[in-house]
Amino acid sequence: MDARAENMVAGVDGAKGRWVVAIFDGERVAWSVAADVESVLTATADTVAVGVDMPLSMPGSGYRTSESEAKSFLGSARSSIFHTPVSAVLDADTYADACRISRSITGKAISKQTWHLLPAVRAWREAEFDVDRVVEVHPECSFRMMSPETAFASKKSARGVGQRLAALGMWIDPHNLFEGLAGLPAGPVVDDALDAAAAAWSTWRYSRGEHRAFGTLTATDRIVA
Asked: What average pLDDT does range 53-73 have in this prediction?
């Protein structure tokens, strides 16, 4: 691995069945879009660490400590984190079946949003990677760590987008930021790209031991910010 590769990290966010990948080398971010998890791992093979906005661990029962701690950290924005379902729901063939399994273990059904995310969760669980190199992140936690004084509005609003661009602009050259967004292929919405960049920021911190970990210090139950 050359010197430049040693300074590269990646952030990854889901985008309607595909993945936005943001690779950061300490000064600039380069975005791309990958079709599947295998393509993400190929695109990020030369980076020292990869941060993924997707649950990389699942509880056998109850809730993950990492999510509870991250929700407390986010306060009023806690709803941006959904509870990861128990691992047994991955065996379900239908939404009704998944709800039945979840109720039998936790007493609660899963949401439709969670059901639609399960294929992506399953894809990452089936992939092979170094669990100390590929880590779970949550972009809202990343933005709050990046700019703790900002009361972030919804990432779907113009104000929210502006706030996130301003926060990212503190560590990415603004010209590179806008040029990179303009060069993305059609498909991903703006918050997909900004979330991937925020994930890369947390991954940069993780690669240098400067991160905050919600949950455990190992991959057992951890979200990095």
From this structure: 93
CA distance 21 to 42: 11
Is the torsion defined by CA of 204, 137, 133, 15 positive or negative? Answer: negative
Q: What is the Cα–Cα distance from 27 to 171, expressed in whole angstroms?
A: 7
CA-to-CA distance for 156 and 162, rounded, in angstroms? 10
- The answer to whether 35 and 20 are in contact (CB under 8 A) is no
Residue 87 tokens, joined: 């691992």
**Residue 67 and residue 49 in contact, taking contact as beta carbons nearer than 8 Å:** no
Residue 148, SS3 per DSSP: coil
Task: Tell me the pTM.
Answer: 0.92
Q: What type of residue is 35?
A: A
φ, ψ of residue 175 to 5 degrees: the values are -65, -45
Tokens 């950290």 sit at which residue?
A: 73
48 is written with which tokens?
């020292």
Contact status, residue 18 vs residue 9, Cβ threshold 8 Å: no
- Residue 4 pLDDT greater than 60, yes or no: no
User: To the nearest whole percent, how much of the chain has pLDDT over 90?
Assistant: 79
Residue type, 204: W
Q: Which two tokens stand for residue 79?
A: 């709803």
The rounded distance, in Å, linking the Cα atoms of 171 and 180 is 14
